[in-house]
Design goal:
This protein is of the alpha+beta class. The protein has 14 helices and five strands.
């Protein structure tokens, strides 16, 4: 216990400084071991802001740079913030749709990270900003005991993060002046509405959205109030209209559209 108490003191002394997030990461690693920490700030339609990470250069391209180019729109943590989930500690698998680990976001992006598990603190900040402090493991998932241990420090993580990043909305707004005032859910919806516009029907674009997010045909059908068979028909029509043959190509096309036409 002594090690993390000492680390907490070091973190508090760094509130407001550039070293705060590194000290926060040190506290968490003194409680449970893990490989990487990344802290993203989310607000509206703005590209996620990398507030801190400790990735080696070869990993940072996938975890940060590629992520910011568009895959974040399908990230369960990003979507949870858009749905204004209750602040707290979550495993990514508890936030993910039913077919997330078979979906194209996972296969085309997330699997490239080589992670065994990601858990994250979701912290609400004034003016519709969220900060997610992610702890990542490459070898094995966090045990139930480890999850409980790290969750016990939640009150400290929340209070310190809210104090340190209290004015983050202005920072993100200055970096993304054209988009920072829009709602986060609106930005996601707009991205999917734009994809295939003029080619796909509104219903087909809805099917694309929920499919790429990792929902099964059954789940998509329940969300849209149609049968799984109708969902399959829509998917065939989508593939035909876009001249593609797989969900992998669908995912790639969506990301390419985001890169070519940033919001």
């Amino acid at each position: 216990m002594g090690s993390w108490i000492e680390a907490t003191g070091a973190m508090i002394s760094e509130l407001g400084s550039a070293n705060f997030a590194r000290e926060l990461s040190g506290i968490l690693k003194s409680i449970v071991p893990f490989d990487y920490t990344v802290v993203f700030g989310y607000r509206g339609a703005a590209r996620p802001m990398d507030l801190f990470d400790d990735f080696p250069d070869r990993k940072r391209k996938v975890f940060v740079e590629d992520y910011q180019e568009g895959p974040y729109l399908l990230d369960p943590f990003f979507l949870a913030c858009g749905n204004k989930i209750e602040a707290g500690l979550y495993r990514i698998r508890d936030l993910a749709p039913d077919r997330f680990f078979q979906g194209e976001y996972y296969r085309n992006y997330y699997a490239r990270t080589g992670l065994a598990e990601e858990v994250g603190f979701v912290i609400e900040i004034p003016e519709n900003v969220y900060v997610v402090v992610s702890m990542m493991r490459a070898e094995k998932p966090f045990s139930a005991r480890e999850f409980r241990q790290v969750s016990e420090i939640w009150p400290i993580v929340r209070a310190a993060s809210q104090r340190h990043w209290h004015d983050l909305a202005a920072t993100i707004g200055n970096l993304n002046p054209a988009s920072s005032d829009s709602g986060l859910l609106q930005s996601v919806e707009q991205a999917f509405q734009n994809f295939g516009a003029g080619v796909l029907t509104p219903r087909e674009r809805q099917v694309v959205e929920f499919t790429l997010k990792g929902h099964s045909a059954d789940a998509v059908g329940k969300i849209l109030g149609i049968s799984p068979g109708t969902v399959s028909i829509h998917r065939r029509n989508i593939y035909s209209k876009l001249r593609i043959r797989s969900q992998g190509e669908l995912f790639s096309g969506f990301i390419e559209t985001l890169v070519e036409n940033p919001r």
